[in-house]
Specification:
Distance between the termini: 21 Å
Order of helices and strands: EEEEH
CATH architecture: Roll
Largest sheet: 4 strands, antiparallel
Number of strands: 4
Shape: globular
Number of domains: 1
Amino acid sequence: MRTYTTRDGSTIEITRRGYTVDMHLRNAAGHTVATVEMGDDDASALIADLSATV
């Protein structure tokens, strides 16, 4: 599991599950905003895109 913290204090927790990735997004107060399951390739592309824009 890896956890990324955004500038506003929100977190993105990423857990690999075989060929899929679970993402748990929380706002700065710790409340769940979304949970997402997606394939490895899509998750990698999303993380790369987010890293490039931050």
